[in-house]
Amino acid sequence: MAPTDQPTRKPVRVWVDGCFDMMHYGHANALRQAKAMGDFLIVGVHSDAEIEKNKGPTVMKEAERYAAVAACKWVDLVVPNAPYNTTVEILREHNVDFCVHGDDITTMADGTDCYQAVKDAGLYRECKRTEGVSTTEMVGRMLLMTRNHHNRPAETGDSSISGFKSEKLGPFSDSGNHVHTTISHFLPTSKRIVQFSEGREPKETDRVVYVDGTFDLFHVGHVEFLKRAKKLGDFLIVGVHDDQTVNAIKGVNYPLMNLHERALSVLACRGVDEVIIGAPYSVTKDVLGSEYNVKVVAHGNTPTERDLDGSDPYKAKRGIYVEINNPNSTLTTHGIIERIIENRLM
Fold first, then answer.
1. Burial state string for 175-196 with b = 16 or more CB within 10 A and e = fewer than 16
2. End-to-end CA distance of the chain
3. Residue range 99-113: average pLDDT?
4. What is the mean pLDDT of residues 108-133?
5. Strands 98-102 and 235-240, bridge-based pairing
6. How many Cβ atoms from other residues are within 10 Å of residue 256's Cβ?
7. What pLDDT band is residue 83 in, cutting at 50, 70 and 90?
8. How would you classify this enzyme at the top EC level (predicted)?
């Protein structure tokens, strides 16, 4: 049989489902592992109503969660309003070969295993859960953000959140006990960074775009901004500021996610080609140097905090500077924290 006559292998279709509330690099790593087991990754995302019935209210609304999952570069298709209890029927409906879930147990409101039916049918695979991060753990960081985890006292007037007493919120774990929560000291290995990286270099003809920011609690506002930035050129480089710089400029206890966590979240976003980990707050010649011939420097049309010396971080690059209008500008890290506090008080 000639090589051209070889039968075409049927693509392996993989299913993952979940809440994906406050999409983080742990979610992205699970999706990366699932995609590596097959060829086409389908992600079912539960509705707000289904999650509230089985776990409680979400922080992010379902449309925001659908968009966040769709932005992950390993996802091929998002199925909205997926059933909380994974069934053989839903897998057959989407012509799926097997489903994948982390090596932790997910249960319905009545305590039954959400994946028991597909396990019994031999349609279940497991991936390794990413240690040190979960939505519950992230919520815990936000509820305790008034604690001094950057060893810098919050200044009066910095934020309405800075004066909020987290003790008013009570316990926030499902069991009613406080979750041990602190600022993350997660440090990725070089292997993990390589797993998240595309490894692509810009062509000589590529129009290179540079954006920078904190990208704390990576959300759909960030996704839309990066999507619009990528449309300005062919190759998108994202600078992520270090923890000390962010805290010195933003105050309170920002950032809630450390530099490496934030960098991995950005790397997992579709359309991002390269990340500068610990980029300077002001756009310098070092950033725009000979390695990447940057043609466009972009920023959102929201107020920009001054650098520590009081200077405009984009002043030196006004000739190639572009402002991006972001329709999701009302969705911010601060706004997400306020949602959590409001939910908790209710």
1. eeeebebebbebebeeebeebb
2. 69
3. 79
4. 86
5. unpaired
6. 23
7. very high
8. transferase
Cis ω for the linkage preceding 3 (within 30 of 0):
no
Q: Judge contact between 222 and 214, C-beta under 8 A.
A: no
Please tell me the distance from the alpha carbon of residue 16 to that of residue 60, in angstroms, as a whole number.
19
Q: Which amino acid is at 313?
A: P
Q: Which of 26, 224, 229, 280 is nearest to 129 (CA)?
A: 26
Task: Kindly give, in sequence order, each residue whose CB lies less than 8 Å from that of residue 223, ignoring residues fewer than 6 positions away.
Answer: 67, 68, 71, 269
What the chain holds in terms of domains, given with CATH numbers, is 13-127 (3.40.50.620), 203-334 (3.40.50.620)
pLDDT classification of 184: cutoffs 50, 70, 90: low
Instruction: Work out whether strand 235-240 and strand 208-213 pair parallel, antiparallel, or are unpaired.
Output: parallel
pLDDT surpassing 80 at residue 57: yes
Half-sphere CA count of 139, side-chain side, radius 13 A:
23
Residues in the chain: 346
Q: For residue range 289-330, what is the model confidence (pLDDT) as tens digits?
A: 757 889 999 999 888 899 999 999 998 777 899 999 877 666
What is the C-alpha separation between 37 and 103, in angstroms, rounded? 15
The one-letter amino acid at 322: V
CB of 20 within 8 A of CB of 51? no
pLDDT digits (tens, 9 = 90+) for 242-282: 999 999 998 878 888 889 999 999 999 999 999 999 999 99
What are the tokens at 308?
């520590």
What does the alpha-carbon distance between residue 243 and residue 150 come to, in Å, rounded to a whole number? 9
